[in-house]
Design goal:
The complex is a heterodimer of chains A (644) and B (250). By secondary structure, chain A is α+β, with helices and mostly antiparallel strands. Chain A is built from 17 helices and 19 strands. Chain A is globular and about 75 Å long. Chain B is α+β, with helices and mostly antiparallel strands. Classes of the chains: A alpha+beta (644), B alpha+beta (250). Bound molecules: flavin-adenine dinucleotide and FE2/S2 (inorganic) cluster. Flavin-adenine dinucleotide (FAD) binds next to helix 3, helix 6, strand 6, helix 7 and strand 15 of chain A.
Chain lengths: 644, 250
Amino acid sequence: MNAPRTPLNLDSKAPDGPIETAWDRHRQAIRLVNPANKRKYTVIVVGTGLAGASASATLAQLGYNVEAFCFQDSPRRAHSIAAQGGINAAKNYQNDGDSVYRLFYDTVKGGDFRAREQNVYRLAQVSVDIIDQCVAQGVPFARDYGGMLANRSFGGALVSRTFYARGQTGQQLLLGAYSALSEQIAKGKVKMHTRTEMLEVVVVDGKAKGIVVRDLRTGAVRSHAADAVVLATGGYGNVFYFATNAKGCNVTAAWRAYKKGAGFANPCFTQIHPTCIPFMGEHQSKLTLMSESLRNDGRVWVPKKQGDTRPPSQIPDAERDYYLERIYPTFGNLVPRDVASRAAKRMVDEGKTVVPGGMGVYLDFRDAIARLGRDAVADRYGNLFEMYERITGDSPFETPMKIYPASHYTMGGLWVDYNLMTTVPGLYAVGEANFSDHGANRLGASALMQGLADGYFVLPYTIGDFLAGEKAGFDDTSHAAFKDAEKAVAQRTDTLMSLSGTKSADHFHRELGHLMWEHCGMARTKEGLEAALPKVADLKERFWAEVNVPGSGDTLNQALERAGRVADFIEFGEVMVRDALTREESCGAHFREEFQTADNEARRDDENFQHGAIWAYEGEGVAPSRHIEPLEFRYVKPSQRSYK
Amino acid sequence: MKVTLKVWRQSGPDAEGAFETFTDVPVDPAMSFLEMLDTVNVQLEAEGKEPVVFDHDCREGICGACGAVVNGLAHGPGKRSTLCQLHLRSFNDGDEITVEPWRASAFPVVRDLMVDRSSFDRIIQAGGYVSVRTGSAPDGNAMPIGKPVADRAMEAATCIGCGACVAACPNASAMLFTSAKVSHLGLVPQGQAERDSRVLGMVDQMDAEGFGGCTNHRECEAACPKGIGVEYIAQLNRDLVRANLGSAAK
Ligand SMILES: Cc1cc2nc3c(=O)[nH]c(=O)nc-3n(C[C@H](O)[C@H](O)[C@H](O)COP(=O)(O)OP(=O)(O)OC[C@H]3O[C@@H](n4cnc5c(N)ncnc54)[C@H](O)[C@@H]3O)c2cc1C
Ligand code: FES
């Protein structure tokens, strides 16, 4: 590892003292912008999913001017729309012993002790406000017959704290945030730029002061200046190509920020979701998630016998291995995702698997249907069953679902301090784009919570601390930093357009995905990761020689959009592999085969790796440098996670 | 299995469009419709030709980005499904499949199968929200909402804003889309304060965008991938009468 050029400022600014009052004390201590002056400031928000739409709407309500951007044709289509299962909050409406502390505890433990305690505590605190806010917007959460809000359970928790709107929770929450955003657009406080892709962050005198974008309709490259920039651009799960993410999800915005000095934290913390419809053929373009909520009532099993070829209906109970219930009697089918995914992989690796195909385990509703009746099961999971049947042709009412793990969520992301600011002053990251509060593994229903916590309740206040120290109204897009960034974008486009290879960008994306899944997926080894590095480098070289991008750069060109994103994914893949290689322990979703307990659980190394690993860009063709943020656990004492 | 595709190609909003034919496209019955278009595009890109432009993202029937008229039907022959959820098993070997963009003056073609649906966003901006400042909300359980009402509101709220209702309607009316939002918020107690201004604002905007009127063809309901029914249009009409009476009384 080479010496870093510029040391990163990794001061977390997390308050000391009692954690219960940390957020309140912090809010009192930070600087505020005078209400009358807020309208003189402009904030750029890139991304209008849950995190970005909620942040934009709230910033605008506070009086700031907001310039918001998304690459879809409408903010309502952000990837957040696809979230199915629900959103956590420590409301304790069920009176089952939930509390802010318990949600905090579950999240720190679920993340395998790799998150910052103060951030997580704050997240648990504001979780209750999120539900109130969304209800007030008219979000139609599920209710019981008495008219009260209903809850379900998710993995990694022993209480029922997940709020939901059928299997469309993300849709309803996003539409809520989108409606709040729409109100501010109508009022002229938010200027919304759809079908616009951010391709550069512009840093002026060490501070983020704008972005360069490409108008996807016309190909025009434009600069936008502001007093601060917020990235709410989502996760990078599509680095594996096959993922449950929407096709447009990409790492480009975060990657460009990284190249401008933002540290990238824990890129190897990628979540593989245990319940997805298995891979069925090369024609496929993505994998589909079956919500974790199904594990509330579905039972996971495989045949006890290796290579059993009987259809599931002909395998009697005595010859089935309900392995999650067997190995983890306390949490049973509701163990956290990383645990469930690895257990499924182990079963399949041992040859205990589904037919036909041999790449999956069963998720069975037979007993739930017998216990609750078909109607009650349909009421809870009807639309998920329909979705499953539409894709596979099988009805889960008649035969068990087949499921297998797939790339789903990324805990890694841009490093942020307690104020959600990256290592570039004035550049913030919210939602899945930051390295978040989930440590090495996110619990189900906690991403929606975090995105909305960041956007509604944290960023709009913490950003004031930075803005208060800035002269308002920066608008100098003629500054050399903007011109350089515009030139860089134009040059990149020209280079891509000038290549006349014979392969589509998609071809290289698939190849990258395969490579990452093999070497840096559910289980990783030193040898595998070391072998991956030259392969990624080779892929990069071939991409820039063999890709073909038809059409032209100064018009709508989806092939060009794809190519740009794939190029960034390839570069990013290298850093992800390096991170997995240097983290010589297993924790949460990061499983290094060399580091496991006798019963195949992740073995952490707290002495050497109780930290966030932050990667800094050191220039083209130079290895990135690795920095650390040590983590301290004053409340939840690190222990070997046990869900038995 | 192989199919022949006739796909609408149009280089820009003001350009003339025409069908381009792709013969003997090899497909797999398990493929989705968009995956078939991907296959065509991968081939086109490798040959240095411009791929067919279409909107898509989630490919799970929820983002509302995708959509095209397939053999005359919005989102194709699948029942209650978006284009991305339509699978080739719904077609036969040798079929000729025609693919066109949504056609409505309020949805101008951007390119090929991609249209501009920002008119939908502007309808929402004209009142499709509850004005509530972040942080000012009462406890979520302070106002009980009976399950039947919550369920009906949810049904209306499942609209994905894809535009199939407009594409299917002979008048290119946006009544189903607008009524779904009006009904969702009109059903729940939180939406009552702005109920009148909401319906008036949204309907005005709908007219200003150039969408046609509703003359009860019910094609929208048949095309809606979420199964949203015309009873919500009736609800909108009742709310509109109510609001007009209210504003006349003022
Ligand atoms: C299938 C599925 C189901 C899920 N279910 C749940 C669940 O039940 N509960 C839960 O808590 N979590 C769930 N998650 C996770 C959760 O949905 C996401 O983590 C979360 O929605 C991310 O929100 P976001 O606002 O950070 O980003 P996104 O919603 O991904 O939004 C990103 C935004 O950034 C924009 N953008 C990106 N790059 C650029 C660029 N370069 N220029 C301009 N704009 C850009 C996009 O246009 C978009 O507006 C699920 C995820 C998946 C895949
Ligand atoms: S791509 Fe999202 S609905 Fe079809």
